[in-house]
Design a protein that fits this description.
Layout (H helix, E strand, L loop, with lengths): L1 H9 L1 H20 L9 H10 L5 H9 L15 H16 L1 H7 L3 H31 L2 H4 L12 H28 L4 H12 L1 H12 L2 H23 L1 E8 L2 E3 L2 E3 L3 E7 L6 H18 L10 H9 L6 H22 L2 H10 L2 E2 L7 H36 L9 H24 L8
Antiparallel strand pairs: 1-4, 1-5, 2-3
């Protein structure tokens, strides 16, 4: 692998792409440390040192921003608004006929969908930045009761400038991600998320050592992390290959078809989306309860129940609801992203068939049967991986400090594999040995 990296840097155009990607990553991390106007950097750092680790929506957003959210930097929102906008547009494709028609128009339709996603990203950035600044005016909700004030100026013009700065930062991050996709290596948006999460790994691991004070637990966590990564890579690469045979057909004097191929169905076709959906949805009751607490201590019974069962991840009720939501969203997301009837119609149109299965409706029913059987272990796998940080909270008290589990490890492994495959293809085009010999 090291030899392959050396040869990649020796190739001028590939070296240029790699260095360009690294340069964008460095700029992205620098922007994550620059505070927005009106925020006291010293006060934020003092509050961060004493703050409990956030869970739910804020914890997930802070993870995707590489810690920039709670520092209220210019890139505080990171790539989260774009992720949310992409998911919303993808879900609306099933509901809105116009979006479904654009999806079928090929590259031109995809460009239009991307434009809609950009507009929605800016709108969500305005909404999320306004919400974050509202929380910043009452910093106890972000950093705990010990934090009293983090804004050096809370006048209306300053607050408007803060919203515009964070929104512009989101637009800049989105632009940098698209630049990496066009001129660099890998998917730009995914690489920025990868960078944000990977940036928190050293501090999270060291926090475990500081909390436990034992090197054997620290080394055990690292070894367990490598084992989890190996298992996740194995499952992410697993797929069910359905053989497809194309009949020979003659067009003019040319003979077409007669080839054999396969449809690769991944065990985890939904990726990390169900975990993000479940985490966000499960955090909404806590967010709603936050606005229904009174200063006198008198609060409704449902707020008390939420505080008892849905605030900490080690509660059995939280775990059961979390697993149930992941299972539901896994099947839901696979059902809207993979259409067996559409695949069967395309195969029939080009003379393809599955050996032993009639073309048309029987093929669609067979594909639906296979994808359902595959999704069951895939959903269970996502549920088990997402529970790793919660189990770590019970064993070593390191829920948010435990980096080898849940959303973070799925994104790290998925983006890492995809980027390595792209470098591999670039090397193979130049007749070099790749990473895998």
């Amino acid at each position: 692998m090291l030899t392959a990296f050396t040869r990649a840097f020796k190739t001028p155009d590939l070296r240029k792409k790699l260095l360009f990607t690294l340069g964008i990553i460095v700029l992205f991390r620098l922007g994550s440390l620059v505070p927005v106007p009106g925020v006291s950097y010293t006060a934020v750092q003092n509050c961060l040192a004493d703050a409990p680790k956030n869970t739910g929506v804020l914890g997930l957003a802070n993870l995707f921003s590489g810690g920039a959210l709670l520092q209220l930097s210019i890139f505080a929102l990171g790539i989260m608004p774009y992720i949310t906008a992409s998911i919303i547009v993808q879900l609306l494709t099933v509901v809105i006929p116009r979006f479904e028609a654009l999806k079928k128009e090929g590259q031109q339709g995809q460009a239009k969908m991307t434009q809609y996603t950009r507009y929605l990203t800016i709108g969500l950035a305005v909404l999320q930045s306004s919400t974050l600044i509202t929380f910043a005016q009452n910093p106890q909700s972000l950093f705990g009761a010990t934090c009293t004030n983090i804004l050096s100026n809370d006048s209306i013009p300053t607050l408007v400038i803060m919203v515009l700065t964070m929104t512009a930062g989101t637009g800049l991050v989105m632009w940098m991600g698209e630049l990496v996709t066009d001129k660099g290596i890998g998917n730009g948006m995914s690489l920025l998320i990868f960078t944000s999460i990977a940036a928190t790994f050293p501090s999270s691991l060291w926090a475990i050592q500081q909390q436990e004070g034992r090197w054997d637990i620290f080394l055990g966590v690292i070894l367990l992390g490598f084992l989890i990564i190996a298992l996740v890579v194995f499952v992410e690469q697993s797929q069910r290959r359905i053989p497809v045979q194309y009949a020979k057909r003659q067009v003019g004097r040319q003979m077409y078809g007669g080839t054999s191929t396969y449809i690769p169905l991944k065990v985890n076709m939904a990726g990390v989306i169900p975990v993000i959906f479940a985490s966000s949805l499960l955090a909404l009751p806590t967010l709603i309860a936050q606005f229904n607490r009174s200063a006198t201590g008198d609060q409704p019974g449902w707020v008390t129940w939420i505080d008892q069962h849905l605030v900490t991840g080690d509660d059995p009720v939280y775990m059961l609801i979390y697993i149930g939501l992941i299972l539901f969203f896994t099947f839901f997301y696979v059902s809207i992203t993979f259409n067996p009837t559409e695949v069967a119609d395309n195969m029939k149109k080009y003379g393809g068939f599955i050996p032993g299965i009639r073309a048309g409706r029987p093929t669609a029913e067979y594909l639906d049967y296979v994808i359902t059987r595959i999704t069951v272990p895939g959903a269970i796998y996502l549920g088990l991986v997402s529970l790793i940080p919660l189990i770590a909270l019970v064993l070593v008290g390191a829920n948010q400090n435990f980096p080898f589990g849940g959303t973070s490890i799925l994104i790290i492994v998925g983006v890492g594999l995809e980027t390595v495959k792209q470098i591999e293809s670039q090397l193979q085009q130049r007749h070099y040995e790749g990473f895998l010999r």
